[in-house]
Amino acid sequence: MAFVPYVLKAAASEIDESGEALPPGKRLVVFPGIELTLGVPCQAILLLDADFPEAWFGQVLTALHLTPPADDQPRNGNVTRLDSVHSFLDLKQQLDRHSWLKDKYIIFPNVTGEGEYSLLRTGQMGKYIEMPCVGGYVDGSLSKMKPGRRSILDGHNKAWGNKRIACFQTSDNRHEDHRDLGTSTTWVKWATPTAEALRQACLAQESRVSQETPLLPALVIASISVSNSLFLGPIDLELNSQYNALIGGRGTGKSTILEYLRWALCDQPPGIEDVETPNYQARRHRLIEQTLKPLAATVEVRFEVNGVPHIVRRSSTDGLILLKIAAGEMRPCAEDEVRSLLPIEAYSQKQLSDVSVRIDELTRFVTAPIRGELNRIDRDLADHAERIRQSYATRRRRRALEQTIQKRELEAKSLTEQADALRAGLTGLADEDRALLDRGKLFDAANQLVEGWRDGIRLIGQAAAALQRTVGLSLTQLAPPPPDPPSTALAAAHAEYRGLLDEAKVALTALSDRAAKLLDTHGGGAPVTPWQQWNTELAIFKASYDAAVQKSSSHTEKLQQLQAIEAQALKLNREVAQLKEELRALSETEASYLVDRQAWQELLGERDTLFDAQCASLTANSGYSIRARVKRFASADDFTAVFRQALSGSRLQGNKIELPGESIVAAPKPGDQWNAILNDLEKLAEHEPERDGAERRPETPTLTSIGLSSGDLDRIGRTLKPEQWLTLSLTPIKSVPMFEYRSREAEYIPFGNASAGQQATALLETLLTQGTFPLIIDQPEEDLDNPVMLEIVAKIWQAKQRRQIIFASHNANLVVNGDAELVAWCHYRAMGDQSRGTIGGTGAIDMPDVREAIKKIMEGGEAAFKLRREKYGF
User: Fold this and answer.
1) 223 pairs with which residues across the strands?
2) Residue 28 in contact with residue 8, Cβ under 8 Å?
């Protein structure tokens, strides 16, 4: 004990790596202690509260009947064996005689193995079984212990009373340079550094003692603050990163706190579906309207995502949401942003038992753990859908161009034939003039080609100018290479990119200028270009042509008609050339549309594959009490609803409208049937009876095969528009998760046929074995049977390493044996007045006032603490 004051002084002045003093909460915690050699016989360590008064150290030794040499002596005396202590019960009774020492110490026997100072030696079974100790220590690493001895500590050896104790590794440093110090460590969780905290840690070693670095959730709600509430008043509640339990009498505010928390984090309760299930949305709306809005209150939630602090503040007056990330500024945000940053899984009272009658609630068990990936797929689906809409519009433009060109070419051919006939009918012309008139159509055809070339030059010039602007913008916004990390590769890569942009700018400028020059018909003093030369040749020929035409004075009316027809033909040919040039620019439209549509459908398949994998995981996580699977193309309800809306006014019978969706769901290959149905419907949507002729309605074999008559198809063709077909084509046939409950080995029944208790137990066990988001449940024990409570408790120990848990509960076993790191208890603000509640206090189970609150408030609280002890065999 002579060394303890020096160690305490060193810890109080601990500094960090930069030499700065550490704050008290970061300094080493020192438990004063003594290594004892007992007459049991074995060694043991006696630890005292971390704040045990230094002035009482000597009295501790006196209580053990020890008289050590004075602290100023050069060395300690020989080890004094306490031969009068033959059991740990004797030692406890000896120490408990002193009121100033009782409940301020804990004893850990040496359980290293079969050594001479270990309690695990052969023949010590009785001493081990009767001892009141809940923990022990080993010299060195626990991993070196033989399996047989380890099974004793784990409570698996009947001869040793199936008594399980927690175990602490010690470094057993025996060198002046402390080379072994800290080589064998144990992590212990406590709220305050006391002997009682160590005892409670041993009683919940699955949760509070670890020989490896403990796992902690990455997404954590740190606190909730309510500026004011008509029911609870102002609230400031700090939360633990692992398991939090809200306790209190009925109507004291536990549920209200959870609803405030969920409202601030924009968690959406399910809407009402039938009169038999509660409307959680309406409940929450009333709560906010009646308790927060009259006071213009705000709710603020602090949370951390992988160590990065976030703050969400929501106003009850207008629902405005403000968000702050790390050291950034508060900014307005949308509900979806909050849900994507901190997704939670939350359930109100009795909501778990309602799950079986709500398909969206059951589906949430599959979607919640993969929400991030599903959001990514949904974003990609939306992006591809927008591309499909754009490419479909371009595709329709291309098809319209093809039809227009065909129509214009037909008109132009007719005009050409008419012009040829008129020329042939002209009389009184010399042979050379007639030959000149016959060559007119050759010059017209040649000029049509030239105009097409000009259109191509114009398009290239426009594209080059647009790309030139993009390159210029990239050069303007080009960031220099970062100075750190210093890298020649970064500088070289930056230089190459800059060089490419510079070269592109020069090349595009030259290309744009050349295109403009080629289109310049005035010349501007430059040498005559081929284009200008052609214009001159064409003008000369036209003058000769017009002169030859004028010589046939006896056919004035025919000449005027010929000139009008030729002018009209020239205009049509010019229009056809422009349309063909535009058509060439859209040559990749069809391929682009098909690629986008294929990518969209592949994303739907990726989502289904993700669902499949998660269903398999859910099945395994439930211990196979739930069997989940995905039925692909299971529901065409949305598809049929869109189809019905598109055919409004068509007078097509309702049962006929449902046929396409029903045929897809029932088909052996639903995906192929879906595409075949869409292909037929697209033909009908694009068919125009006035343009194409009613009798030329396209063939639709798939629609015919499912039972649609010729009259039905006519009604669809007259009503369905291409834009409506596009919307229909982007309405997926939904895949639906299917759930079953294991009634007995290898036998499953529909999940809805299981009892409420069976459903709630299976679902809660599943929630505790999957997911990483905070889990918030109001009174999870509502539908649980007592025999399964300890199974749930065991799953809580594992779950809180991955996800934060926040329960409001009346069940003491969930709180005590589940080992809640934080207990917050609520009571009425004024005795006898049940109109207002408040938070009475918070803390951990190793704090006396928390244990007292549990025993007073919770039915069976004292029994739960006894069970916590009795499972260790004493």
Assistant:
1) 238, 302
2) no
pTM over 0.90: no
Please give the single-letter amino acid code of residue 739.
Answer: F
Place of tokens 């008290």: 24
Which of residues 565, 583, 601 is at a domain's end?
583
Identity of the amino acid at 64:
L
> Residue 188 falls within a domain, yes or no?
yes
Give burial (CB, 10 Å; 0-12/13-18/19+) of 775. Answer: buried
Residue 14 neighbours by CB distance under 10 Å:
13
**Which tokens go with 392?**
């479909």
User: Residue 855: which CATH number?
Assistant: 3.40.50.300
Q: Supply the mean pLDDT for the chain.
A: 87
DSSP assignment, residue 720?
Answer: -
- Structure token digits, residue 575: 């229009």
Assess whether 143 and 47 both reside in one domain.
yes
Question: Please, are residues 698 and 684 in contact by the beta-carbon 8 Å criterion?
Answer: yes
Same domain, yes or no: 263 and 178: no
Contacts of 170-177 with C-beta under 8 Å, sequence gap 24+, read 170/137, 170/138, 170/139, 170/140, 171/140, 172/139, 172/140
Q: Where in the sequence is the domain holding 317, given as residue range(s)?
A: 219-329+773-870
Q: Does 84 have pLDDT greater than 80?
A: yes
CA dist 141 and 112 (Å) reads 9
- Say how far apart CA 314 and CA 321 lie, in whole Å: 4
CA atoms within 13 A on the CB side of 368: 26
| Rg of the chain, C-alpha, whole Å | 43
pLDDT-derived band of residue 436, with 50, 70 and 90 as boundaries?
A: confident
Query: The tokens of 678 are what?
Result: 């869409």
What values do phi and psi take at 700, rounded to 5? Answer: -135, 75
Average pLDDT of the segment spanning 295-318: 95
At position 765, the amino acid (one-letter code) is E
pLDDT at 271 over 50: yes
Strands 243-248 and 822-830: parallel
Residue 177: in which H helix or E strand, if any?
Answer: none
* Tens-digit pLDDT profile for residues 395-412: 878 777 777 788 888 888
| Pick from 33-42, 530-539, 818-827: least confident | 530-539
- Element containing residue 153 per DSSP (H, E): helix 147-153
The Cα angle at residue 194 between residues 192 and 197, in degrees rounded to 5? 75
Contacts of 20 by beta carbon, 8 Å cutoff, 6+ apart: none
Q: How far apart are CA 622 and CA 613, in angstroms?
A: 14
pLDDT in tens, 739-787: 999 988 889 998 888 887 888 888 888 899 888 999 999 998 877 777 7
| 19/37 same-domain check | no
Non-local (6+) Cβ contacts of 703 within 8 A are: 660, 677, 680, 681, 684, 713, 716
- Considering the domain boundaries, does residue 625 fall inside one? no
438 & 303 share domain: no
Nearest to 657 by CA among 648, 665, 666: 648
> Of all residues in the chain, what percent carry a pLDDT higher than 70?
93
Looking at 176, 210, 244, the residue that finishes a domain is: 210
β-sheet bridge partners, residue 304: 220, 309
Q: Helix count (H) and strand count (E) of the chain?
A: 32, 22
Judge whether residue 439 has pLDDT over 90: no
Residue 434 domain-assigned (yes or no): yes
Asked if 362 contacts 754 with a C-beta cutoff of 8 angstroms, the reply is no
Closest CA relative to residue 685, chosen from 655, 638, 720: 720
What's the one-letter identity of residue 706? I
Residues 6+ away with beta carbon under 8 Å from 200: 190, 208, 844, 845, 846
CB under 8 Å to 420, separation ≥6 — which residues?
441
Provide the domain count of the chain: 4
